[in-house]
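#struct-help
A.M.: can someone run this one for me? Single chain, 322 residues.
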Amino acid sequence: MWHNRVVLKHLPSLLIAGALACAPVWGSAQPAVPGPRPSIAVLDFSTQGLTSDSWGSFQPGVALSDLLTDRMVNDGRFNVLDRSHLSSTLGEHQLSASGEVDPETAIRAGHLVGARYLITGNILQLEQTGQSGAGAGSLLPGVFGAAAGGVSTHRVTIKVAVRVIDARTGQIVQSFADEESRSGTSWNAGGFSGYAAGSYSNEQFVNSDMGHLIDDEAAKVATTIDPSRFNSGPVAPALTGQIAAIDGNNIIINIGSNAGVQVGQTFDIVKVKSLVDPTTHAVLHVSENVGRLQIDSVSSSASVGHVVSGKAAVRLTVTSGP
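D.P.: on it. Structure tokens below:
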């Protein structure tokens, strides 16, 4: 882990001790929450809205997401999806793997990639916020260019906003912002241009000034994400309906938005068998899952979906658990 360089000046020793006692310990992972580990997917952080583009074709949002994924895998509190497959899976369904995610898109994306929770965010700032040292050299175009002649130290700051979204409900279950600064002499990120998702977790990038900065921020974000809060958002109700009709590949069920059905939601297709107990002669009902259905569109009293796996037939029961 890369440690921050913090200098405290002109503070009485007792005040310093008190400040350190109250400060959050970013390097310490939160205790594991009992029960199954939540499945998560880290989407690319958006850079829309940044006023500076001096990093050229380097993708800071992709880099932050890659290093955050690594941090969360090593944390051990989560089941983390492989980022190398996220973009291709979502792209096939014309969904973005980055930026702002509305509730309907979050539900669809979560079901497509198999994640219960999505981590999304925006990089609000990534720019030089200070300079010191020799001024003889001229800075090449872009604040992250290499200094020519003389050695000059530049401080660069990154600010991020983070959201954790429940992919079953589209609800935001955790939201926070953070910033990190670092000083260095070489902020040239041109050599890291064109990397795809999953490619920034390499020694060359992580050991660069830019890599140190983004990895420090990824570490702070990872320790702030709190799985104990994930279930605080409202949970979709358990739903039961029937397949009313089949039109080609379209499976129509007899419940809709009035019952709480949402686009992207999945249902088990269940065949109920009735048997007679040979001893007591009581009627026994046995349920067998024969397929899985995903919802594509919803009206007030009906929904249309497609079969993801297995088979469907009219009058079969469909169920979706909370």
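A.M.: thanks! The first strand starts at residue 39 and ends at 42.
D.P.: also worth noting: Confidence is low (pLDDT under 50) at residues 1-28, 135-150.
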